[in-house]
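Technical note accompanying the year-one report. For the benefit of new consortium partners, we illustrate the data format agreed upon in the data management plan: each record pairs a sequence with a structure-token string. No post-processing was applied to the example shown here.
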Amino acid sequence: MDVTVPRVVALPAAAELLDRLRDEHGPLMMHQSGGCCDGSSPMCYPQGEFLVGDREVLLGVLDLRLFTGQVLPDAPSDPDGVPVWISPQQFDVWQHTQLVLDVVPGRGAGFSVEGPHGVRFLTRSRVFNPAELTALEEQPVLTGADWEAGARPPAATRPQVVTDVADACAIPGG
């Protein structure tokens, strides 16, 4: 059993929208909002337009080169990767869950780049199973300070684009 457990994955519609938004805006980044103006919607920005604090936690880097179920041996370059951040306070609350990025019809968040497309990103989640929680204890958590110093997570060893939320869940004993 591999021990790399992704803290964030995307459903196909979200991965496709991110790819289109990258074509429009260049490299992207996301931040899981903790409330305020746009509720708890994940926010998507061109890289560098949202300042990541030293203590922000990197949930993962979504690889836009991937299709559903696919895994590549190398980590994405900055233009192909979408770092997904969360505040340390939110991470403390959500660290036991995997975030599953989805897209639904509706008004996009006011500051997020998908707004004009008539859709919005939505976070779904599922609780990690005990084996995943044990594996996560072995995985270092990268912060904004680590990122600024050049640290990047290793290549994903499990699919990052899944067909539905249930597919994000590893099958116990599998």
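Partners are asked to follow this layout when depositing records. Strands lie at 8-10, 28-32, 42-46, 57-63, 81-86, 97-105, 119-127.
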